[in-house]
């Protein structure tokens, strides 16, 4: 009997009603996340627990039988962090999908990890509250996955990443021990900041089974505009100009020419198809301040070389314009296989990063469509290949590595929001240095001495 067989037998005795998938066809659906051109193993089994107690027992037994564990949310990740490991146990948290409490008095919400981001937003909005983290995949990604990767999104320029909105966690450690970090207090300096340690650790340090998240009062309707440019460089300079002007819009997103065409072809939004680039700029400032912020942004954009401006006249039109950005990846995926990358630079270096991406893709004859969160320096170059291109996997890694190097040379990062996972693992010591990685290994060894939690990811 293998370690996995013994684990499953023990699980069956402890929780006979626990849903376990052992058929190869069922397990196949949990082999990959959404990272293109990345090999992954077939899970030995897939468990779908419904409670912290079940997660704790699974991890305790996995430690006893020395079975590797892959924690997984909705599977929308783009770094291979939740992809299968051959023969391992994948623990899927999607059944733990209840919002446990909305607390308006303390501006927080307590939720399980399987809740979808959009569902959480809608639930707290009914109480006049707002949860800002806003990944483009918010309608399908889970809170647990957002916590695991420290997800970003369209509102980061003003509101920051997931980590900035976490007050406390319930976490199951590798040996099955359940701990709590933080709570509902806004300020807490008792001991190490374990909450922030687990957020972004991609399931390598523990499995998050509950989160207490910060909220804020729901802002009013957004003022929304699109700005078009005759060159990608002009759009990059406009981003820098907005930063210099001290403007902090809630959204400042960029789409290049390839992305504009893909979105317009797919959804007929009436975008300027001749434009080399487009910026989506939004303000959620109260009252007339939103219009004033867009007025200031428009002046800076036109001075930087913007060719035309379109402002939404009502909330419905604003939503249509916003969809141009949210639908970008899906529009590109209609045209072939897409490998989305995730690099970041200091905001003033966005024009340089855009130029580097263009130069690198052209040098290798690879079609690249770039969009992303230009307001915080985070861009997503998307390498687009014909579905049957035999050279796609090789070119993906060649072009990706050169873009990573360019981002680091500009003082940036090889991942701003998707995480290191498995796809970027070899780049962590290049960016952080061997000393920093050694410190990370020490933390990993202390919390997971047997190395069963998502082995081979991040480190």
Concise account of the structure shown:
The chain is an alpha+beta fold. It has helices spanning 3-14, 24-28, 52-64, 117-125, 143-149, 156-159, 194-198, 232-244, 257-267, 289-303, 315-326, 328-333, 350-363, 392-409, 428-432, 434-447; strands spanning 19-21, 45-48, 69-72, 89-92, 99-103, 108-111, 129-130, 166-172, 178-182, 207-214, 216-217, 223-229, 251-256, 277-283, 306-311, 337-340, 343-344, 367-373, 378-385. The chain is built from 16 helices and 19 strands.
Structure description:
This protein is α+β, with helices and mostly antiparallel strands and 459 residues long. It has 16 helices and 19 strands. Among the domains are: 99-217, Uridine Diphospho-n-acetylenolpyruvylglucosamine Reductase, domain 3 (2-Layer Sandwich), CATH 3.30.465.10; 223-409, 3-Layer(aba) Sandwich (Vanillyl-alcohol Oxidase, Chain A, domain 3). Helices cover 36% and strands 21% of the residues. The strands form four sheets. Strands 12, 13, 14, 15, 16, 17, 18 and 19 form an eight-stranded antiparallel β-sheet that branches. Strands 5-6-10-8-9 form a five-stranded antiparallel β-sheet. Strands 1-2-4-3 form a four-stranded mixed β-sheet. Helix 8 crosses helix 10. The protein is globular and about 70 Å long. The two termini are 30 Å apart.
Choose one word for the global shape. Answer: globular
CATH architecture of the domain at 223-409: 3-Layer(aba) Sandwich
Rounded to an integer, what's the Rg over CA atoms? 22 Å
Task: Provide the CATH superfamily of the domain at 223-409.
Answer: FAD-linked oxidase, cap domain/gating helix
Strand content: 15-25%
């Amino acid at each position: 009997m293998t370690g996995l067989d013994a684990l499953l037998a023990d699980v069956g005795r402890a929780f006979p009603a626990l849903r376990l998938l052992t058929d190869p066809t069922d397990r196949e659906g949990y082999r990959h996340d959404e990272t293109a051109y990345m090999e992954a193993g077939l899970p030995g089994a897939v468990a779908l627990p419904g409670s912290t107690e079940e997660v704790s027992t699974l991890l305790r037994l996995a430690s006893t039988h020395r079975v590797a564990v892959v924690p997984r949310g909705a599977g929308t990740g783009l770094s291979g962090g939740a992809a299968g490991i051959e023969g391992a146990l994948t623990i899927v948290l999607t059944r733990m999908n209840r919002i446990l409490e909305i607390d308006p008095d303390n501006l927080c919400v307590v939720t399980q990890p399987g809740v979808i981001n959009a569902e959480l937003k809608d639930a707290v909005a009914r109480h006049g509250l707002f949860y800002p983290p806003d990944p483009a995949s918010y309608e399908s990604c889970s809170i647990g996955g957002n916590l695991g990767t420290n997800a970003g999104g369209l509102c980061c320029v003003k509101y920051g990443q997931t980590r900035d909105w976490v007050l406390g966690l319930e976490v199951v450690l590798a040996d099955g021990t359940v701990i709590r970090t933080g709570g509902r207090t806004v300020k807490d300096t008792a001991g190490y900041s374990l909450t922030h340690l687990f957020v972004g650790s991609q399931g390598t340090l523990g499995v998050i089974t509950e989160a207490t998240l910060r909220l804020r009062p729901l802002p009013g309707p957004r003022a929304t505009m699109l700005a078009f440019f005759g060159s990608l460089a002009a759009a990059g300079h406009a981003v820098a100009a907005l930063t210099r002007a001290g403007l902090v819009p809630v959204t400042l997103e960029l789409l290049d020419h390839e992305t504009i065409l893909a979105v317009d072809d797919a959804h007929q939004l009436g975008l300027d198809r001749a434009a080399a680039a487009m910026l989506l700029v939004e303000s959620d400032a109260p009252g007339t301040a939103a219009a004033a912020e867009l007025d200031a942004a428009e002046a800076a954009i036109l001075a930087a070389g913007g060719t035309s401006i379109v402002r939404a006249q009502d909330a419905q039109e604003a939503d249509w314009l916003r969809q141009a950005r949210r639908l970008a990846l899906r529009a590109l995926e209609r045209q072939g296989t897409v490998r989305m990358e995730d690099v970041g630079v200091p905001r003033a270096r966005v024009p340089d990063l855009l130029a580097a991406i263009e130069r690198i893709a052209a040098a290798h004859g690879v079609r690249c469509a770039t969009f992303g969160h230009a307001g915080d320096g985070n861009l997503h170059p998307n390498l687009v290949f014909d579905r049957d291109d035999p050279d796609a996997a090789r070119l993906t890694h060649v072009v990706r590595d050169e873009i990573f190097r360019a981002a680091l040379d500009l003082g940036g990062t090889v991942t701003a929001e998707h995480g290191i996972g498995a796809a970027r693992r070899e780049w962590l010591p290049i960016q952080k240095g061997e000393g920093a990685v050694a410190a990370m290994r020490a933390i990993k060894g202390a919390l997971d001495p047997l190395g069963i939690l998502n082995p081979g990811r991040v480190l």
